[in-house]
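Section 5: illustrative case.
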């Protein structure tokens, strides 16, 4: 990714706001400290690259600020290149 091609939207709920979730899924038990991370990317990465990304995110968040790896829920929204407009009403990748 180009260095200047990074955009973040960070939304934080109020401390008393709950994330409604199952107590566990696929053998993973969650606590009320569950965080959800959603990343929108161009559909261009292999399954191995995605697995590596998930591990790295979990490793970093477990190290600092000390989150439980089980409470780090990540999903990728993959978008075709032609479905992006970075301004000017143009499809820069199309």
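Designed sequence:
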């Amino acid at each position: 990714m180009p260095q200047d091609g990074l955009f973040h939207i960070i939304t934080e709920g109020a401390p008393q706001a709950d994330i409604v979730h199952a107590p566990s899924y696929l053998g993973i038990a969650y606590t009320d400290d569950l965080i959800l991370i959603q990343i929108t990317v161009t559909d261009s990465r292999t399954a191995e690259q995605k697995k590596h990304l998930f591990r790295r995110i979990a490793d970093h968040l477990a190290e600092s600020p000390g989150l439980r790896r089980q409470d780090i829920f990540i999903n990728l929204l993959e978008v075709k290149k032609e479905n992006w407009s970075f301004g000017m009403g143009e499809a820069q990748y199309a």
